[in-house]
Structure formats: C-alpha cells, structure tokens
Amino acid sequence: MQAPVTLPDVRVETETEMFVSFWFAEEGEEVLEGDRLVEILAGSVTFDVPAPLSGRLVEVRAAEEDAVHCGDVLALVETEDEDAESEI
C-alpha cells in the first residue's frame, strides 16, 4: 500500500510559503518511521518532516527548491502494512 507524506500544518511566523530544502532519502530507498525524510525552509527557519511509517520511498512529488504549502503531498512511501493509510 502507498501512503502519502504530507507537509504538516505548521505556523511559522507569518510565512505561508515554504520551500523544500533537502531530501535525506532518494526514491527507491528504505526509510524507517521517524527518520528525517525532508528538510523544509520557511523564511529563516528550517524544520524536518519525518517519515510517517517504515517502507520504501517510491515517489518524490516536491523537488528541492519547490514551493510547498501545508497539506501538500511531498512524497509517497510504500509499505506492506494494510492499515498504513489510516495511521497517517
């Protein structure tokens, strides 16, 4: 099953637009739940979005330097857990 990795609803000062700064994993790589997956830049603040579950990163939908907003799907992680979608 594929599960989305979404940009959480964060409030960083008055910044509404954020940018993908760096991916810690590449498509095809295995990730563990809680691993640093992607770094986001919002104004002068950076924060990491962790992998929401363990699996394989199958698709990156937001490349480095892309503008992103809260709720955007950043990537897809494939897992064998049938209930993965309901856990996110």
Give an overview of the whole structure.
- The longest helix has 4 residues.
- By secondary structure, the protein is mainly beta.
- The radius of gyration is 13 Å and the shape is elongated.
- Helix content is 5%, strand content 45%.
- The strands form two sheets. It has a four-stranded antiparallel sheet, with no helix packed on it.
List keywords for this structure.
single chain; 88 residues; mainly beta; four-stranded antiparallel β-sheet; 1 helix; 8 strands; 45% strand
Spatial arrangement of strands, main beta sheet: 1-8-6-3
Q: Ends: how far apart?
A: 13 Å
Helix content: under 10%
What is the β-strand count? 8
Question: What fraction of residues sit in β-strands?
Answer: over 45%
- From the alpha-carbon coordinates, what is the Rg to the nearest angstrom? 13 Å
pLDDT averaged over residues? 88
Largest sheet: 4 strands, antiparallel
List segments where confidence is low: pLDDT < 50 over at least 5 consecutive residues.
none
**SSE run:** EEEEEEEEH
Structural class: mainly beta
Q: Which geometry do the CA atoms define?
A: elongated
Q: Helical stretch count? A: 1
